[in-house]
Design brief:
315 residues; alpha/beta; Rossmann fold; RNA_methyltr_E_TRM7; SAM-dependent_MTases_sf; tRNA (guanosine(34)-2'-O)-methyltransferase activity; cytoplasm
Length: 315
């Protein structure tokens, strides 16, 4: 298994490196923009759970490119608990999306103005237990929605990852309370074998009397204003839309390395290597043949520059 193996198995991984994207997920946002025109009229955008930064890259290229043509000033804020390599025109906040201080800092960067667009590609480290994974992802989506209610303007758009499980209609019901238009989108670059999809929520219209509050879970039926009672059938069906042309590459198919007969395949290294990845110590132990030894010293004790380098990667 050489360096070219993943390029052959995952066409979007290869294209992301060739086009300078930090991750293949950039194509998901690009394909949804083709379908929904997400960036039209957007001058202030927020990327939640942003690391490693591929969606922030898309926002930077699309919005700042329009700004250079003389449009209004563009401001982009990326939020994540992890550190992220800098991007042109993107302000980074290393913070928790469940904290009110993070929402206040976002608004401060926008000089008191709300955002036009909030996107979130965050997902938990999957366990393989589907019910658990779907529940954790649902809670992450609700956390993203909660902070969105603090920073998004009326009429704004919210895009977030969702796992389509058996109880997904409850999430749709909660989203429909805040947005008049909710669509479940499946980009062509998202594997068909995955339950991953994205909710595109348009025209933010919170219920009358709703006050965003980080201390209370969303829609816990404890508000004084009685707007949580859903009328009609409990099941909410939202439109499902496949994004991307059918002639686009199939993310589940294996392609040959030689796509173009006139152009020889050449390996392209990743655009941006991870910054302080969680597997940093494991890479150090493996490189020094310490995995099988008891009481192995930590990476930070043996490598004084461990915080400045990314072990385990070779150019």
């Amino acid at each position: 298994m050489g360096r070219s193996s993943k390029d052959k198995r995952d066409i979007y991984y290869r294209l992301a490196k060739e086009e300078g994207w930090r991750a293949r997920s950039a194509f998901k946002l690009l394909q949804m923009d083709q379908e929904f025109n997400l960036f039209t009229g957007v001058n202030r955008a927020v990327d939640l759970c942003a690391a490693p930064g591929s969606w922030s890259q898309v926002l930077s290229r699309k919005l700042r490119g329009r700004e250079e043509k003389g449009d209004a000033e563009v401001k982009i804020v990326a939020v994540d608990l992890q550190a992220m390599a800098p991007l042109p025109g993107v302000t980074q906040i290393q913070g928790d999306i469940t904290k009110i201080s993070t929402a206040e800092e976002i608004i401060r960067h926008f000089e008191g103005q709300p955002a036009d667009l909030v996107v979130c590609d965050g997902a938990p480290d999957v366990t393989g237990l589907h019910d658990v994974d779907e529940y954790i992802q649902a809670q992450l989506l609700l956390a993203a929605l909660n902070i969105t209610t603090h920073v998004l303007k009326r009429g704004g758009t919210f895009v977030a990852k969702i796992f389509r499980g058996k109880d997904v209609t409850l999430l749709y019901s909660q989203l429909k309370i805040f947005f008049s238009g909710v669509t479940c989108a499946k980009p062509r670059s998202s594997r068909n074998s995955s339950i991953e999809a994205f909710v595109v929520c348009q025209n933010y219209q919170p219920p009358e009397g709703y006050i965003p509050n980080m201390s209370n879970p969303l829609l816990d039926h404890s508000y004084d204003v009685d707007f949580n009672q859903l009328e009609g059938p409990n099941r909410v069906i939202v439109p499902f839309l496949a994004c991307g042309d059918l002639s686009a590459y199939d993310s589940d198919r294996t392609y040959p390395l030689q796509l173009d007969d006139s152009k020889e395949y050449q390996y392209t290294p990743p655009t941006q290597l991870p910054i302080q990845p969680p597997y940093q110590q494991a890479c150090h132990l493996r490189r020094n043949n310490l995995l099988s030894k008891e009481d192995a010293p930590s990476a930070s004790n043996n490598n004084p520059d461990s915080e400045k380098t990314t072990p385990g990667w070779t150019s």
